[in-house]
Amino acid sequence: MIRFDVLTLFPGMFNSPLSESVLGKARDKKQIEIALHNIRDFAPGRHRVVDDTPYGGGGGMVMKPEPLVRAIEFVKKPSPSARVILMSPQGVLLSAGHVRRLAQYPHLVLVCGRYEGVDERVRLEVVDEEISIGDYVLTGGELAAMVIIDAVSRQIRGVLGHENAAHEDSFSDGLLEYPHYTKPRNFRGLRIPEVLISGNHREIKRWRRKESIRRTWLRRPDLLERAALSDEDCKTLDELKREGESCRGVV
Ligand code: 4FV
Predict the structure, then answer these.
(1) Ligand 1 centroid from CA 21, angstroms
(2) How far is Cα 211 from Cα 12, in angstroms, rounded to an integer?
(3) CA 70, 75, 76: angle at the middle one, nearest 5?
(4) pLDDT digits (tens, 9 = 90+) for 34-75
(5) pLDDT for the residue 161
(6) What is the distance between the alpha carbons of residues 181 and 87, in angstroms, rounded to a whole number?
(7) Is the dihedral of CA 154, 155, 159, 165 positive or negative?
């Protein structure tokens, strides 16, 4: 079981995405717990101010430290070892490796920034790490937090239908996934690869590995450099290169 505490100014954004399908069922089965907290509830005074103008000038607003730090310390009270993650473009880029690492923590606190960002002292005081879902700017950290909740929850035993699904998917071995086919065998004249209905599981496994290597080579050669390729895989890659697949070919 993993617990996510989400700190946001817009808790309503989380309702439907985290209540449907796999995540909804995982919550019902108590495999994951998600608690939403409105940062404004931790802002002092009648006006409950959560942001202010940036020191040094410049447009936009900055989230004030007090409401955020109070909110984080509040959700950490029951479990001081909870890992506090700030979603921000300045964070490390989320990857399958980080997802697997985060899934080891029993309790994650996800802090969603808004406006131009959060006061730097929040990072210094109570944030353990910053994570970015990509080199672009969102209107808020909420969608990034949902991405983390979805990706990490898939790593939790029992959340995905069949047992080792998460260990079979893309990036589990650093490569892109092989092509998938299902009925009908012939769709508008497009037939499925014969090997997939051969019943020869060793050949099917070889074909799928070759297609993973081919796709990764053609679409994400950066991943191929980092992937742990076996001697067999290297032979397959050389075969593909000999087959003269121009790297512009999209397969
Ligand atoms: C973001 C990202 C992101 C920056 C300013 C929220 C916004 C606003 N978070 N990965 N990319 N956050 O753009 O995680 O506060």
Answers:
(1) 26
(2) 42
(3) 95
(4) 999 999 999 999 999 999 999 999 999 999 999 999 999 999
(5) 73
(6) 36
(7) positive
Tell whether ligand 1 has an atom less than 6 A from the beta carbon of residue 11: no
For the Cβ of 143 lying below 6 angstroms from any atom of ligand 1, the answer is: no
Bridge-based pairing state of the strands 51-52 and 129-132:
unpaired
Q: Which of 84, 81, 102, 95 is nearest to 152 (CA)?
A: 102
Residue 10, φ and ψ in degrees, nearest 5:
-130, 70
Whole-number Å distance between alpha carbons of 170 and 82: 28
- Helical segments of 48-155, H only: 65-76, 96-102, 120-126, 142-153
Identify the residue whose C-alpha is closest to ligand 1 atom 9: 88
Question: Tokens standing for 143?
Answer: 């969608």
Per-residue confidence band for 251, with pLDDT thresholds at 50, 70 and 90: very low
**CB of residue 111 inside a 6 A radius of ligand 1:** no
Please say whether the beta carbons of 126 and 150 come within 8 A: no
> What's the one-letter identity of residue 88?
S
**Residues ≥6 apart with Cβ < 8 Å to 12:** none
| Residue 54 DSSP code | P
